[in-house]
Amino acid sequence: MHSRIRHVTIDCHDPYSQAAFWADVLGFVEDPDNPNAPDDPEALIIDPSGRHPGLLFVPVPEPKSLKNRVHVDLVPPSTRDETVDMLLTRGATLVADHRKPDGTGWAVLADPEGNEFCVERSSAERGIAPPSDTGSDQDYPDGIRTAGERQMLSDMLEWYRAAVLRKVDGVSPATARTSPVRSGTTIAGLLKHLALVEDSWFTERFAGVDDLEPWASAPWDDHPDWEFHTAVTDPVDDLVTLYQAACDRSRSAAADHDLDDPAAAPGRRGFTLRFAYVHLIEETARHLGHMDILREFLDGSIGE
What we know:
By secondary structure, the chain is of the alpha+beta class. It is built from eight helices and eight strands. The chain has helices at residues 15-26, 80-89, 149-168, 173-177, 187-206, 226-230, 236-254, 273-299, and strands at residues 4-12, 29-30, 43-46, 54-59, 70-75, 93-97, 107-110, 116-119.
């Protein structure tokens, strides 16, 4: 395992102004959970795609002279002190030791050519939970392999719905909003989209219930991907609640019908309840796979 760059820290006179300038240049944004303010002691901007380290601007009294004003802060995979000792054996030198008796603080080192960098405490030392494992032994429901068609379709969809909720359990707001791909896809957007899909296929089209919010008042003509774009401002708990409520409505819509029953308001092409089940299984499984990859890429969490 190797250390990763968490922030590139830049010494400057006015952190807030410098952060605003570089955010404009790079398309970076403030941390949505800790926005910058003019009187803050430092200012952080982050890459919304999650592909690059953040930039952290800190004030220093001296103007730029011969000292390199940019250095990296390393978050080690092991402990801070073990990493410092290892780096010293690799040719680094200790420039300043800001480690404190209570275990907090950091060490400033220099590489063999004198470029300074900091070694912070590891994530575990800072009390950050390790990546979660949502489980690799989540077997299919009992009896599904030999169940009748209706029970099989219903149980399979429920299995995937439960997996979606496991996949977003414990995800941080920043991780849920971050997209490391060019399409801008986020975990939050996928969760809101799955809520839309549930309501659209089961409640609106199959059962014929219209004017469901938040979909009825959404500006679809102007923003065809409205649910994906607006999800990044929604609290994760609210999105979970929205998805669970949509799933409950889907269950109610299907409860008293046979698989061959036609949709009440299908739109341009008719379909049966059977097709709604098959499509929702496919759709949920597909986007669960997207969530799985995004979560592992962004915070290391794995599992079914």
